[in-house]
Design a protein that fits this description.
With 167 residues, this protein is α/β, with parallel strands linked by helices. Keywords: Hydrolase, Metal-binding, Zinc.
Amino acid sequence: MIYTMEGEIMDKRIKWDQYFMMQAVLLASRSTCERLSVGAVIVRDKRIIAGGYNGSVAGDDHCIDVGCYLVDGHCVRTIHAEMNAILQCAKFGESTDGAEIYVTDFPCLQCTKMLLQAGIRKINYLRNYHNDSYAQKLIQLKDITLNKINLTQSDMDRVPFDAYLSD
C-alpha cells in the first residue's frame, strides 16, 4: 500500500475522471488551432468510443501553418473537438446515446446543442471557457449532468511517465 504524507491510504491508480480527462488533454496536443487547443473523449461504460481535437477538415490547410481564417472574429476553418469526436462515432457507426464526454474546455453553444441531440448524458470539462448562459440553460432543461473535473500535480505524479521514456 502507498500512503500519503497524512498517513491515508492512496490508491495506486488514478481515478476514472482524471484518466479520461488526461486522454482529452493528450488529444488537445494534436490541435492545429492557434487560438485554443481543445481535446474531447467520448466514453460509454468506462470505455473510450471516440476522441477528437480542434482542427481543420482533413486535407485542408491548418491554422498553425497558414494562420486562422477569421470571419466575424471566429475561425471558420476549425472543427471543434466535440464535433470531431461525434463525427468519428458517426463515421464508424458507434452510438453516442447515453454516453458522456470529457472535454478540456466548456463546450460552446453549438457544440452543447450537438452533444444534447447526440444523446450525451454527462458533460465533464476541465476549464471554463466563455460558458454560454443559453448552453447552461439547455443543459439544465435536458437534465444533463455537468461535472467540472480537477487535474492536479498529484494526479500527474501517479502516471509513471519515466517508465515509458526512451532516452
